[in-house]
Design goal:
Helices cover 35% and strands 24% of the residues. Strands 1, 2, 3, 4, 5, 6, 7 and 12 form an eight-stranded mixed beta sheet that branches. A seven-stranded mixed beta sheet has the order 8-15-14-13-9-10-11, sandwiched between helices. It is globular. It is built from ten helices and 15 strands. The protein has helices at 4-12, 37-44, 60-71, 86-98, 150-164, 184-194, 209-220, 236-245, 285-289, 301-317; strands at residues 26-31, 49-54, 75-80, 102-105, 117-120, 124-128, 140-147, 177-180, 198-202, 224-231, 248-253, 259-260, 264-267, 275-279, 293-298. It has two domains: 4-175, Endonuclease Chain A (Endonuclease, Chain A), CATH 3.30.870; 184-320, 2-Layer Sandwich (Endonuclease, Chain A).
Length: 324
């Protein structure tokens, strides 16, 4: 049976028919298909606290929900990137601060804070690939995993508290967490290396040599590697290596109706050992070793089934993507 808490949450977020798990507390949100309503409803459900870490924050609706939560007595804390996105984030920073939200510019010791995580009442967290940038909502492929896994939520909150104070921290891994700059590269390389039959992959970047090597090695040993990305004219050498190793690439033009911003690796879907990574980490050296990032690797059947269907559709559509 589903956990009562996550079942009630899924119903309240309009997710009951989508991906309520059989044993653990997970629900999947897929963008642009569902829109941000499930995330907004999670924010609105807060009774005690909201902790948000966000790379880029320009969404008036999300700002208003945080302002409203603070006005009704919810303790709202927000970390915003300053190394790359201070200019874009300053209007949100100033409005939130003026309305009683505790806002902190992210620790400049990271190359940037690229994490996108929302935690409500210390009990439920959304680990997202998406930024709060409404201009991209209609066209960007994104995912969010909503979880009430106690160990993961506690680890996210422990790390948030340290990052909010610019304090030193070795982020706890919880049950499933993939943190940059600590265990992200090793976790993703391990997931890729574990694949015996198939890898379905989406990412915005493809520059980390270790990840490219691992994907090429998987394809060379007979794993069906299928990668869907938006081609931004940056990774020609890497794409050539992947094709030569036997990987399949579905590349969307930058002008296509769908932009692949998601960061996903689904290994051996359909087998007993299948697992999926969803998170903020791009396949770049900075993202995996110098940024603050967060993802998770789970084996929830419903989340994997929904993810697999979306990735298969994106891969099939890449060769015929329409330009705008």
């Amino acid at each position: 049976m589903p956990r009562p808490g996550i079942l009630r949450l899924a119903v309240s977020l309009g997710l009951a028919a989508l991906s309520v798990p059989a044993a653990a507390g997970y629900a999947l949100v897929t963008e642009p298909d569902q829109g941000l309503a499930p995330i907004y409803r999670l924010m609105a459900s807060a009774r005690r606290s909201i902790d948000l870490t966000m790379y880029e924050f320009e969404d008036p609706a999300a700002i208003a929900l945080l302002d409203q939560a603070a006005a009704r007595g919810v303790a709202v804390r927000v970390i915003l990137d300053q190394n790359h996105k201070q200019g874009a984030n300053t209007p949100a920073h100033d409005q939130l601060a003026a309305n009683g939200v505790a806002v902190h510019w992210a620790n400049p010791g990271y190359a940037c804070t690229h994490q996108k995580t929302l935690t409500v009442d210390g009990a439920t967290a959304a680990v997202m690939t998406l930024n709060f940038t409404p201009q991209y909502y209609p066209t960007s492929r994104e995912f969010a995993v909503i979880t009430d896994d106690p160990a993961d939520v506690a680890a996210i909150e422990t790390t948030f508290a340290a990052d909010f104070a610019d304090g030193p921290v070795s982020p706890p891994d919880g049950d499933n967490l993939v943190w940059s700059p600590t265990n992200a590269q090793s976790s993703l390389l391990g997931l890729i290396a574990s694949a015996g039959a198939s890898l379905q992959v989406e990412n915005e970047e493809m520059s980390d040599p270790a990840v490219v090597d691992a994907l090429c090695a998987a394809a060379a040993r007979g794993v069906a590697v299928r990668i869907a990305m938006t081609d931004r004219g940056k990774y020609g050498r890497e794409f050539d290596r992947l094709r030569a190793a036997g990987a399949g690439l579905a590349l969307y033009p930058a002008s296509a109706d769908l932009y692949i911003h998601a960061k996903v690796v689904l290994a051996d879907y359909g087998s007993a050992g299948a697992r999926v990574f969803i998170g903020s980490e791009n396949f770049s050296r900075a993202s995996l070793t110098r940024n603050r990032e967060l993802g998770l690797i789970i084996s929830d059947p419903a989340v994997m089934a929904a993810t697999a269907a979306t990735l298969a559709g994106d891969y099939a559509g890449g060769g015929s993507a329409r330009a705008q």
